[in-house]
Design brief:
Distance between the termini: 35 Å
Order of helices and strands: HHHHHEEHHHHHHH
Strand content: 5-15%
Shape: elongated
Number of helices: 12
Structural class: mainly alpha
Helix content: over 70%
Length: about 325
């Protein structure tokens, strides 16, 4: 994700400025999601007997940060999809949303609102003493556990729809509208008319952006939908105190963990999607990895400088009664 951010911001990948901003922000919020969920939560659970978030106030803070980054990632895709549809639909919207400051303000607003909505999730867990077995001995340690109350159940249901159900539905609807609009536009004008109206470069950049957006949207829906479905099943049919979530002889527990794995993959696969879909992205990636760009630039500078030096040395001064001495004091690369 961090390498994707570098590629988007500092390399020419053939995308519009607004697409670069949206995809860069998506890479950053996905990175934070992986830090909170994978590196801190899951990894330290297996490394340490008593991770720091099993104490107050870290028990609530970690939940707030995890869901804040999850909201941000989901709704960044939704907002990007809606923005592309509005740009295709209206010329006025295109002029408005094509401004970089509008896109940056939108991304900041998405992140801030997502974390603001995640504040109630800081109270769905509670630190309680739990008896566990360590090296054959029973010990009592504080654990960050789910608060089994009506408040937590309501908040979790709302979160399930805000982070999964509603974004999935919106992404499907607006991608369908984008496809419908493109098909209608292609049937309304001939190829030459579209080329005259939009220009080849603009049309190509728009096509690449729409293709990339469609790929990210499809991956988002396919990887997020299983978690939404399994979470709804767990919170309805198996929502009781006697149900053992760690009993993997029950199929829904296996399906739930696999769905969580797919949800985590949703924050790690965008780099591969860009490599598969975008030829310009692949080309820039190869040039960065192999350092071909720097090598070519250095070779060009050396060649140009050498030619200028030999041009000065080999120059034959015309006969004159007052010969003039020319001293080379500076070399300047010209375009």
């Amino acid at each position: 994700n961090l390498f994707t951010f570098y590629m988007m911001c500092y390399r020419k990948c053939g995308m519009s400025h607004t697409a670069i901003i949206y995809l860069s922000c998506l890479a950053i919020v996905d990175t934070f999601y992986l830090v909170w969920v994978i590196l801190i939560d899951l990894t330290l659970t297996f490394w340490l007997l008593q991770p720091f978030w099993h104490s107050h106030p870290w028990c609530g803070i970690l939940g707030f940060l995890q869901y804040g980054s999850l909201y941000s990632s989901s709704w960044m895709v939704v907002v990007f999809t809606i923005e592309r549809y509005l740009v295709l639909r209206s010329t006025t919207a295109k002029q408005h949303f094509s401004q970089a400051w509008v896109t940056k303000l939108t991304c900041v607003a998405v992140v801030l609102v997502s974390h603001l909505v995640s504040v109630p999730l800081g109270w769905i867990n509670i630190v309680t003493p739990v008896n566990i077995t360590v090296d054959g001995e029973n010990v009592t340690l504080p654990r960050c556990c789910y608060r089994n109350e009506a408040y937590s159940t309501v908040i979790v249901w709302i979160t399930t729809f805000l982070s999964g159900g509603i974004p999935i539905v919106l992404v499907i609807i607006f991608n369908y509208l984008i496809g419908y609009h493109l098909c209608r536009a292609s049937n309304l004008f001939t190829k030459e008319e579209r080329r005259v109206m939009h220009g080849r470069s603009t049309r190509g950049m728009l096509r690449r952006t729409i293709l990339l957006l469609g790929t990210v949207s499809v991956a988002f829906v396919m990887l997020s939908l299983p978690r939404f479905v399994t979470y709804c099943i767990l919170r309805t049919k198996y929502n009781n105190e006697n149900f053992n979530r760690n009993d993997y002889s029950i199929p829904i527990n296996v399906a739930g963990d696999l769905a969580n794995m797919l949800q985590n993959l949703n924050s790690t696969t965008n780099f591969l999607l860009y490599c598969v879909v975008s030829r310009r992205f692949r080309r820039e990636l190869v040039q960065v990895v192999t350092c071909n760009v720097k090598a070519r630039e250095l070779a060009s500078v050396l060649t140009h400088t050498t030619m200028k030096v030999f041009s000065v040395v080999d120059h034959k001064a015309s006969p004159s009664s007052n010969p003039v001495s020319v001293v080379l004091t500076n070399l300047k690369q010209t375009a």
